[in-house]
Amino acid sequence: MASTQSSYAGLGEGQSTTRPPLFDGTNYTYWKERMRIYIQSTNFLLWRIIKNGEDVPMKKVRETNVPKTENEYDAQDIKKVENNAKAINIIYCAVNPDDYRKNSCCTTAKEMWDKLEITYEGTDQVREAKIDFLTHEYELFRMKENEKIDEMFERFSKIVNDLHALKKTYTDKELVRKILRSLTLEWRSKADAIQESIGITNVTIDGLRGNLKTYESTILFPSLGEQKKKGIALKASSSQEPAMEESSDEDNEFGLVIKKFHKFMREYERKGKKHGGPPKCYGCGEVGHIKPKCPNAKNEKEKKSFKKHRAYISWGGDSGDESSEGFKETTYFHREGG
Question: Which of the residues 93, 183, 205, 260 could staple to 314 if both were Cys, CB 3.0 to 4.6 A apart?
């Protein structure tokens, strides 16, 4: 709300075509331009009086010029005085009470206008300092990241308009070149295409704005949106990879345990046949079977305990002989321990 109010400062008269724009003490540059247009459209002669001044009717007394009295005015003098009074009246109708008091001592419309300029724009030295500052902003102007064309042109126009109010102007060619140089990297190809196909001298600043807005809405932003979606999808798939790799590692580890166990059992049975005689169960002491396949196992808990130690042994051994010895030692330990 505050920004809206500041943007419309100086518009107290509702932009009427029959009344001068009211100056409320803010946004002087805007009011000054509107006031100039209003006066010129009403009576251009009054604008000349305000800018150039109107001499007070004079007469010569003993080789010295002195002001005429009202009774001494001729028709031409009366016309001059009337026009000056009209110009003063227009300014009075357009300023607030504070500015009226500041200008009430002025006798001509030019004095009033010049005093307002000095009050709100400063002296020539102050204006030069403002021009230097705004010119520096103009030279350093760059498009911001992710900034839209309308937003960039709004910032750019503010600088250019303020300089114009201080009588510092640029040609369309200079403005177009500045904008093209100020674009970010994603606009580089478009800027090069404009320079090569159309040329800077054949483009106005308004035409450039429309061209860039069309490219922005139809090509640039849709392509950036697709790139953003692809980036999100890639990020999501990357985040799933560690979990998939972890699951795969667990599967490989389990498969390796099973593989080593089967290798161990084949080696064990082969050695049993090599030494002669059927295999002997270290669980119940009977021959013809081994403990993992013993039908006389006491309970499921004993089987599970055996499986755990069997898996541990299969991991620890690198060769069939070592695995076999480790298996025997652990099995005896369980028999002795009950």
Answer: 260
Residues 15-49: tens digit of each pLDDT: 677 889 999 888 898 899 999 999 999 999 999 99
State the Cα–Cα distance between residues 28 and 99, nearest whole angstrom. 12
Within its chain, how far is the Cα of 110 from the centroid? 47
Range of the domain at 162: 126-203
- Same domain for 8 and 35, yes or no, is yes
Q: What Rg do the C-alpha atoms of the chain give, in angstroms? A: 48
**Half-sphere exposure (Cβ direction) of 168: Cα atoms closer than 13 Å:** 18
Same domain, residue pair 7 and 117: yes
Write down the pLDDT at residue 336.
43
Would you say residue 3 has pLDDT above 60? no
Instruction: Report which of residues 71 and 226 the model is more confident about.
Output: 71
Burial of 95 (0-12, 13-18, 19+ CB in 10 A): buried
Q: State the pLDDT confidence band at 116, using cuts at 50, 70 and 90.
A: very high
Query: Would the pLDDT of 62 be above 90?
Result: no
Q: Which of 124-138, 146-160, 206-220, 271-285 has the lowest mean pLDDT?
A: 271-285
> Looking at the structure, do residues 104 and 39 belong to the same domain, yes or no?
yes
- d(CA 245, CA 242) in angstroms, rounded, equals 5
Q: How far apart are CA 243 and CA 299, in angstroms?
A: 38
- Is residue 316 a part of any domain in this protein? yes
One domain, residues 89 and 143: no
* Residues paired with 66 in a beta bridge: 59
